[in-house]
Specification:
The chain is an all-beta fold. It has two domains: 237 residues, TolB, C-terminal domain (Neuraminidase), CATH 2.120.10.30; 268 residues, 6 Propeller (Neuraminidase), CATH 2.120.10.30. Helices cover 0% and strands 51% of the residues. It has no helices and 52 strands.
Length: 550
């Protein structure tokens, strides 16, 4: 039996969902809020504000979730949230999901690995550690096995071919955890029991198809062959993986979100009117408008490969720009539009936008680097360094002289997506220093010999959550995405001193993360949207295991 759960009115569903162990309720995120849907009554209830993936207590009474650098729980029937543990001393932001065992042990994850803590609270103990030498970027989506001590989880790699599901133990130290993969997959793995107490199913994604493979819960190993459960299942992540939009209960109930149709480039006006579309539909993972607004550099994923394409907006024609075997993504235009800087694997390159000549290596490093912004004079590149121990940090690469990187924003607050203002005097970025992501602006200047950044004033721009800032071409307005994914606009004055205005909502949403940009005049916005079924409901399947091939 199959039926659907629609999005609550005025919201758009995300693939972040979790079915209660008793199969009667679904916890999910929509509009920056935690909701619970009651399968018996068909009612969806708005519980509270939440930041990331929820998970259930074994008795299906409580929902745990992250909020403001804490693991918090709330009764599914409603009530005040209660803090389980504050993880701000471990890291800031970047939640990697959690699981709650029948022995009241909680596992939760951040950028450095997975941690164990009692459900009643206490001091978290690290049980897995992200290994940068193996190009790992995170450990996430743990799911307990029936013994309550072992669990399955995903080790996500910057090289998508190396991402896989592993077996872990709550009793082991990080260096004692198994490094033998169970199955290759980029997406988080729930375990689902079956009528046979010895055998359950490991659920995982393989190129958009939800698979189930028998798992011996006594020997802790896979057996038999994987079977297809559902095709075109949604996910939340780029080509290297993320959260899979599916969950299973202890009693043969399955819920998943069908994958949206191919993504479309859509033009919006400030009031939210759709002004048109551009290019073909494809699995876009990022975009950057050229300075003259005539071309778009696009990250496109096909299968497990991601490359950069250039779209000529006047002719509506696309040309492939990179052909590497590594992941080529995060394109960034030079101020004069003649070059494109991008990430290939861990390293930063630049290449003529005309496609002539080979790409030039700008920065080679052991850990992944992400290009963020170029100063208008072309002298400095802001880029992010992903460090699983210290958290994300923003560095500055001089493109002239000795080209030695210098730190710009480095602490445990997880600064990201830094953007130079058009005049080069200011940098907008998002940070989790307050307990939730907000937009800030810092002044920017180098010391006399150009070897260090001189930090000046700092101003908070957003209120109530914000990320992915974008400047208008004259620097007099700053845009960002609010917690509910609506795009906001803030007037900016810099004379006689820096002074931000009040954030005002524009008439459209950027529902797919940072996949949006604006023209220099701030009148048009190019947004990657899900073509067609942007209100795709959840699908619930009862007795789903009966359909598996035996």
């Amino acid at each position: 039996m199959r039926f659907s759960i629609p999005a609550p009115e005025g919201t758009t569903l995300t693939p972040i969902l979790n079915l209660s162990p008793d199969g009667r309720k679904v916890a999910f995120l929509a509009g920056g809020r935690l909701w619970v849907h009651l399968l018996e009554s068909g009612e969806s209830r708005d519980l509270t504000a939440a930041d990331g993936s929820p998970f259930w207590s074994p008795d299906s009474r409580w929902i745990a979730y992250p909020f403001e650098n804490k693991v918090v729980k709330i009764e599914a029937a409603g009530g005040p949230p209660q803090t389980i543990v504050d993880f701000s001393a471990l890291w800031s932001g970047d939640w990697k999901a959690g699981a709650w065992s029948r022995d009241d042990v909680i596992i939760f994850g951040g950028p450095s690995g997975l941690f164990r803590v009692a459900a009643s609270g206490g001091v978290p103990v690290q049980i897995t550690a992200v290994d940068s030498a193996r190009q790992e970027r995170s450990h996430y989506c743990p799911s307990f096995l029936p013994d309550g001590r072992h669990f399955v989880y995903n080790r996500r790699s910057y090289d998508a071919q190396k991402s896989a599901i592993y077996l872990g133990s709550t009793d082991a130290k990080p260096e004692q955890q198994s490094l033998q993969p169970l199955v290759a997959s980029n997406w988080g793995p729930p375990y689902a029991p079956s009528a046979d107490p010895r055998t359950g199913y490991l659920l995982f994604m393989r190129e958009g198809t939800l698979m189930a493979q028998p798992f011996d819960s006594l020997r802790l190993q896979l057996k038999g062959q994987a079977s297809s459960v559902a095709e075109q299942v949604s996910d939340l992540g780029a080509g290297t993986g993320g959260y899979g939009g599916f969950s299973a209960s202890d009693n043969d109930v399955l819920v998943f979100r069908p994958r949206l149709d191919d993504r479309q480039l859509t033009w919006y006006g400030r009031e939210g009117k759709v002004l048109g579309t551009a290019g073909d539909t494809a699995n876009y993972q990022g975009l950057a408008l050229s300075p003259d607004g005539m071309r778009v550099a696009l990250s496109r994923t096909s299968g497990r490969a991601t490359n950069i394409w250039l779209l000529n907006l006047a002719q509506d024609t696309s040309t492939r720009f990179t052909f590497g075997s590594a992941t080529d993504a995060d394109p960034l235009w030079s101020p004069d539009g003649t070059r494109i800087i991008f990430r290939s694997g861990n390293d930063l390159y630049q290449k003529l936008a005309s496609g002539a000549n080979d790409a030039e290596l700008l920065l080679k490093a052991g850990s992944p680097q992400f290009p963020l912004s170029l100063s208008r004079d072309g002298r400095f590149l802001l880029f992010e360094v992903a460090d699983p121990k210290a958290g994300n940090g923003v560095w500055l690469l001089p493109l002239k002289g000795d080209k030695k990187p210098v730190p710009f924003l480095l602490d445990k607050s997880g600064e990201d997506d830094a953007r130079f203002s058009p005049d080069g005097h200011w940098v907008a970025y998002d940070s989790n220093e307050s307990g939730q992501l907000e937009i800030y602006v810092r002044s920017f200047a180098m010391n006399a010999d150009g070897t260090a950044v001189k930090h000046g004033g700092k101003w908070q721009i957003s209120n109530g959550g914000g990320l992915t800032p974008r400047w208008r071409g004259d620097g007099r307005e700053l845009y960002y995405r609010a917690r509910d994914r609506r795009v906001m606009a803030v007037a900016i004055a810099t004379e006689p001193e820096f002074r931000p205005g009040k954030p005002e909502p524009l008439g459209f949403f950027a529902s797919l993360g940072d996949m949006w940009d604006c023209t220099a005049d701030g009148r048009r916005f190019l947004v990657v949207t899900a073509k067609g079924k942007d209100q795709a409901p959840f699908t619930v399947v009862l007795n789903w295991q009966a359909a598996l091939k035996k």
